[in-house]
Amino acid sequence: MAYSFREDEQTELEFSASELTGALGDSVTVLPLLVALAATTSVSLAHVLVGFGVFQIVWGLYYGMPLSVEPMKALVGLAIVGSLSYPELAAAGLLAGGVLLVVGSFGLVGYLQRVVGEPVIRGVQFAVALLLLEAAVDLSLGAPGVAVAGLALVCLLALLGYRQSSVLVVLALGGVAAVLAAGVPAPRLPELALFPAGSPTISGAALEGTVAQLGMTIGNAAIATALLCGDLYDRDVSADRLSQSMGVTCLAAIPAGGVPMCHGSGGLAGKYAFGARTAGANVLLGVGYIALALVATGALLAAFPVALLGVLLVVVGVELGRAAFDPIPFTDRRALALVVGVGVVGLVVNVGVAFVLGAVVFWLLSE
């Protein structure tokens, strides 16, 4: 049964099975990164989860829709591979947050959206879809049998008419396996402190990481997400507004022990694919993250079969890829070629580089 609390014609809260499964559609792009980050840096997993929980709720209620809240993937990825320490990651996140707040306040992201062209933004969406599929393959390689079984289960449930419920079944099975392997830790409140995992450290690596992240964030988390809000939820959300909210998130969360966070088309597509239609999904997911923070240990999350998370990433990637191509007419070969080109460059090189190159090509073709 669903319970709705309508505040106005633009805001609705619904708590139902589809909102719950939709909420989890965002978490499958978040948890693998957080587990890897906690295993390779000094980050406090409990503090990070609290940050995600709070801002899931804040931005869901503010925008009145199931907007995603994700890690800044370029910066977190650099930290996971050892190119950035956590203090450098924190510094880069604060820098990125300040820039996003400023450019959003002056309307520069919206201007860039008009200049760049929709095919380039759709290409960024396609690139993220390809990256999600690549991540799914990487997560599945360690246990291909588990991945195949999970995918078969998802397909079977979809054929039986339970596509949205399939994510709950897969995550429940993985959760049981993790508890059996690591046990249930005693609940504990995260320590209230300023920069609990280390004070920010400015370095050349932090500056380089900030530039790389901003290219991805402006293309995917601001512009592409703004377009997807209209495509999936018929909401007019400006890229500048999204840029401002991401800036506020980083500047508020990182001093409390969080990591750089952004919105993202991948998480939004994931929520939609699994049934989220209102901000209720954000409230449910936010409460879940905060509850998980009370028992969060690297051992527990690391024990979750990552091959099953790979299966869920496949579903999200396919949904995002479909959303990238749906608005482009098949007769517009130039636009389709640009979408594919930007997507492939984003996969092979970097989403930020693909965004810049695509913008240049679009400008040259428009002359």
Structure notes:
The protein is mainly alpha-helical. Helices cover 72% and strands 4% of the residues. It has helices at 17-27, 31-40, 45-63, 73-80, 86-105, 108-116, 118-141, 144-159, 163-182, 204-233, 239-253, 265-273, 280-295, 298-302, 306-325, 333-348, 351-366, and strands spanning 3-8, 11-15, 70-71, 261-262. The strands form two sheets. A two-stranded antiparallel ribbon has the order 1-2. The longest helix is centred in the middle third of the chain and has 30 residues, at 204-233. The termini are far apart. Mean pLDDT is 84; it is low at 1-9.
Would you tell me the structural class of the helices and strands? mainly alpha
The Cα radius of gyration reads 19 Å
Whole-Å distance between the termini? 55 Å
Q: How many alpha or pi helices?
A: 17
Q: Strand order across the biggest sheet? A: 1-2
pLDDT averaged residue by residue:
84
**How are helices and strands ordered from N to C?**
EEHHHEHHHHHHHHEHHHHHH
Strand content: under 5%
Give the CA-based shape. Answer: globular
Low-confidence stretches: 1-9
Helix share bin: over 70%
The total strand number stands at 4
Q: Describe the biggest sheet? A: 2 strands, antiparallel
Q: What descriptors fit this protein?
A:
367 residues; mainly alpha; two-stranded antiparallel ribbon; 17 helices; 72% helix; globular; disordered N terminus
